[in-house]
UniProtKB/TrEMBL annotation:
InterPro entries: SEO_C, SEO_N, SEOA
Annotated ranges, domain Sieve element occlusion N-terminal: 22-292
Domain called Sieve element occlusion C-terminal: residue spans: 461-688
Protein name, entry field: Protein SIEVE ELEMENT OCCLUSION C
Organism: Lactuca saligna
Length: 691
């Protein structure tokens, strides 16, 4: 049966019988298809091809995102993708010079790609055509302004053309190419669906069979249209002189094909929309039910729905850019899904997360029991070049697993993450227990605060940690600097100094050194200001050169304080614990004081919970009154001595206190348990009635 390019054609609805011509095309197309199918990363390759088609048909100088073929995978194939595209380009050129009818030549090209999936077929043929079409249009558009283009035009016999006479034919080709791309989108969308979810019932099988028939027709006509367009480009190059009749006939033939593809695209588009909606609703419901199913024996079924519907090896690690890992690696483990944009987190938060997990001292004890899986999600349906580059760099650099091709995540999975897990701009760390159930909808704060110590990272563990937590220097610096943690545990006097005023910090350092030289044992840590510029933080870090408390560790300190406040406010809404008011007050004071650009210092001893904060003029009084509080160091300690100087001006707890405490008469000075001031002695006589 010969099929001319001008045959009338009306796509059938799913419930309508196919015409004899359509059945003939479908049968012939299926015969070219082999069961051993090669898989191509169609989404990214399609984006690259579409860019070429767009710019070739639109005279725009704006540079949009481009894709690199090296980053596009060609699975289960021995040849590289660029070599496959090159072979197809040569095959198209060869078929343009063949004397066989267009239908037979189309089948020859289909047979050449017989071992590829249907979406890969259409994307590869369009990519091969886009290369020759893009080169052709580039020469036409710039040969008058470019010596290189003019030279190429001469070699291709194009430089003498009256291009205005060719405009109708070129416009018809542009219209056809637009329809080819739109129809290919439908094929790619359908082939990326997890069809196995709806093939388990009769209705689903019937619906899929009807759509498959349209997929075969679409593939055939995309191949035929590509070959027809390439042949016309060949004819334009070979044409000795313009012939208006030939040009008009060629334009009419292309327009007829464009109309045929447009009708087919409308029909197939509706069918794919219906299939996608049915599959996504079913997948969404399955995900929601599964994440609450208490009868699961492990996490494999849940992780399969998330990542492995279309790929048995959906994960990668940083050991190799081409690494492929299956979800079986996550079996019986706690899985932490790090959901973020492709640029992950701010650099300081990324490094803090790395330090609190991979490099945390406790991590060696639990590293075999949990895995972090990065799930990057783009803000739009199409990934940009910047997002691709960012993902490639980070996924090959950071020591946790990543979704290997996050742009292929099913839209139902992305929808569930956005709607149920409330992912918007800020990153989430959703924790799945070893049975695949959600144990924490966002463990980010607790991981940045306590690190590996927070294992198994569940909501109840976060509440448990807050129940146990005290506000002291050990908590402030936990996980940031091990040597400083050792200093705290050693029981030394410690002072943290906060300010963005470098002159004031320099004066503070000068005065504190005089006290150290006179015998005061105290370790000072300068932490600058959380809102200070990078240059200021670097200079502040210079004052910490003796203890290696670097500028990045200063940023860690402030980031943890912010997360401490966020966590305690969130947990405190639903769970009241003993130290809630105290810790919230102390961390808020530090953050609020810093926001007001005040100079301040906090003094304490080791991991004691007894701290005193001075700010502004009170710090000056601290230095000036050394002759008073220095005499009380031995009996009261540093914090008690500072408080004892002048309760009304130096003490940062401005309130009256009527607390009493009965101790033996011969006991020395006593510090109030409530306000931490030195208590005044009163004599109490008690009648001993037993004598």
């Amino acid at each position: 049966m010969e099929l001319s390019g001008n045959d009338s054609f009306t796509p059938q609805s799913p419930s309508t019988e196919l015409s004899l011509q359509q059945e003939f095309i479908i049968n012939k197309t299926i015969l070219t298809h082999e069961t051993n199918q090669h898989i191509v990363d169609c989404k990214i390759l399609f984006q690259a091809m579409e860019n070429v088609m767009f710019y070739a048909s639109n005279s725009s100088n704006d540079i949009d995102d481009v894709c690199i073929l090296d980053g596009i995978e060609n699975f289960a194939s021995k040849e590289t993708l660029d070599h496959a595209v090159y072979k197809i380009s040569r095959a198209i050129l060869l078929q343009c010079h063949d004397t066989m009818d267009m239908h037979t030549r189309t089948l020859v090209l289909l047979e050449m790609l017989g071992n590829y999936r249907w979406d890969a077929k259409v994307v590869l043929i369009l990519t091969a055509f886009a290369i020759s079409y893009g080169e052709f249009r580039l020469i036409l558009d710039v040969y008058a302004q470019s010596s290189l283009a003019a030279s190429l035009a001469t070699l291709k016999n194009l430089c003498w053309r009256n291009f205005e006479a060719l405009r109708p034919q070129l416009r018809a080709m542009e219209m056809l190419i637009k329809e080819m791309v739109e129809l290919a989108k439908c094929v790619v969308r359908f082939e990326s669906l997890p069809l196995q979810l709806v093939l388990c019932d009769d209705h689903g099988c019937t619906l899929m069979a009807a759509v498959k028939s349209q997929i075969y027709l679409a593939t055939y006509w995309i191949f035929r249209s590509s070959l027809t367009s390439a042949s016309q480009i060949r004819d334009l190059i070979a044409m000795k002189q313009e012939n208006s009749n030939v040009t008009a006939n060629a334009a009419w033939g292309l327009s007829s094909l464009a109309l045929r593809l447009s009708r087919l695209c409308n029909c197939l588009g509706l069918q794919v929309d219906a299939s996608q909606k049915q599959i996504e609703e079913k997948l969404y419901k399955m995900l929601m039910d599964l994440l609450k199913d208490q009868t699961q024996v492990d996490n494999q079924k849940a992780l399969h729905l998330f990542f492995s519907l279309n790929d048995d090896m959906p994960l990668k690690d940083s050991s190799c850019s081409q690494s492929k890992i299956g979800i079986s690696k996550l079996k019986q483990k706690i899985v932490m899904l790090l959901v973020s944009k492709p640029d992950l987190l701010p650099i300081d938060q990324t490094l803090l997360l790395l330090q609190q997990t991979h490099e945390h001292p406790h991590n060696k004890n639990i590293e075999q029991d949990y895995e972090i899986v990065w799930v990057p999600i783009s803000s739009s349906e199409t990934w940009t070049l910047d997002e691709l580059v960012s993902f490639d760099y980070l996924s090959n650099s950071l020591p946790w697993l990543s979704v290997r091709q996050p742009w292929l995540l099913n839209s139902a999975v992305v929808r569930m993450i956005r709607e149920e897990w409330k992912f918007e701009e800020n990153p989430l760390m959703v924790v799945l227990d070893s049975h695949g159930l959600v144990s924490n909808y966002n463990a980010m704060d607790m991981v940045l605060i306590w690190g590996a110590k927070a294992f198994p990272f569940s909501e109840w563990r976060e509440k448990e940690l807050w129940e146990e937590q005290k506000w002291n220097f050990q908590f402030m610096f936990e996980g940031i600097d091990q040597s400083l943690t050792n200093t705290v545990d050693g029981g030394r006097n410690i002072c943290i100094c906060g300010s963005s005023n470098l002159d004031w910090i320099e004066e503070f350092e000068s005065r504190i050194k005089k006290l150290q030289n006179s015998g005061l044992q105290i370790q000072v840590i300068y932490i600058g200001s959380r809102n200070a510029s990078e240059n200021t933080q670097t200079k502040v870090g210079f004052f910490n050169k003796d203890i290696s408390f670097t500028p990045i560790k200063i940023r860690f300190f402030w980031r943890r304080l912010e997360k401490i406040k966020d966590s305690i406010l969130r947990v405190g809404q639903f769970h009241n614990f003993a130290n809630y008011e105290t810790i919230l007050k102390q961390v808020s004071e530090l953050l609020d004081t810093d926001d007001d650009n005040n100079n301040w210092a906090v003094f304490g001893c080791g991991n004691s919970n007894d701290l005193v904060k001075l700010q502004g003029n009170k710090i000056l009084k601290f230095f000036e009154s050394i002759h008073v509080w220095g005499l009380k160091l031995a009996t009261l300690g540093l914090v008690g001595a500072i408080r004892s100087v002048d309760d009304d001006e130096v003490n940062n707890t401005m309130m009256t206190c009527d607390h009493t405490n009965m101790v033996p008469y011969d006991q020395g000075p006593v510090i109030c348990d409530k306000c931490k001031r030195l208590m005044k002695p009163f004599v109490v006589y008690q009648c001993d009635g037993s004598k």
